[in-house]
Amino acid sequence: MASIFSKLLTGRNASLLFATMGTSVLTTGYLLNRQKVCAEVREQPRLFPPSADYPDLRKHNNCMAECLTPAIYAKLRNKVTPNGYTLDQCIQTGVDNPGHPFIKTVGMVAGDEESYEVFADLFDPVIKLRHNGYDPRVMKHTTDLDASKDHFLFDKPV
């Protein structure tokens, strides 16, 4: 009995066996766990009206406080990303930290990848304000990976 297993698990047979098992496991996992890539938005009903939950941002110095309006808050407050992230969790850091008048921070975080789509009415103006007019819905960031075009201070001949 031991000779059968020792023959299977030696040399080329073992690598073929493990490759076949690994491929079958990966294929099975892919077929059983196919998920949609786009963000599905869930609604989470609240007990209080939006005006009661809207944070007081009058003395805050961050991009989120500048862009968040009661209308945007009322529109987005019930939305939840597929991973369970809410608008209140996004803006919590900006509410807790009012900032300094001379150092303007963003004041919000994206909890997951879908936050940029689900809360786009708030994220897009914040990105535009923070990055000097860059509009993520219209503009496309150029990427040039050609290393011959990179010239740094120490690359120049003396």
Describe the structure.
The protein has eight helices and two strands. The longest helix has 22 residues, at 11-32. The termini are far apart. The chain folds into two domains: 2-32; 42-130, ATP:guanido phosphotransferase, N-terminal domain (Transferase Creatine Kinase, Chain A, domain 1), CATH 1.10.135.10. It has helices at residues 2-8, 11-32, 50-53, 63-67, 70-76, 87-96, 115-118, 120-130; strands spanning 42-43, 79-80. The chain has a two-stranded antiparallel ribbon with strand order 1-2. The protein is mainly α. The protein is flat and about 80 Å long.
The helical percent reads: 40-55%
Continuous helix count:
8
How many structural domains in the coordinates?
2
- Enumerate the spans where pLDDT stays under 50 for 5 or more consecutive residues: none
Q: Could you say which structural class the secondary elements and strand pairing correspond to?
A: mainly alpha
| Multimeric status of the protein | single chain
Tell me the CATH superfamily of the largest domain: ATP:guanido phosphotransferase, N-terminal domain
- The backbone outline, from C-alpha atoms, is flat
Number of E-type strands: 2
| Strand ordering within the main sheet | 1-2
CATH class of the largest domain: Mainly Alpha
CATH architecture of the largest domain: Orthogonal Bundle
User: Biggest sheet, in brief?
Assistant: 2 strands, antiparallel
Note the run of SSEs as H and E: HHEHHHEHHH
Strand content: under 5%
Mean pLDDT: 81
From the alpha carbons, calculate the radius of gyration and give it in angstroms. Answer: 26 Å
Distance between the termini: 73 Å
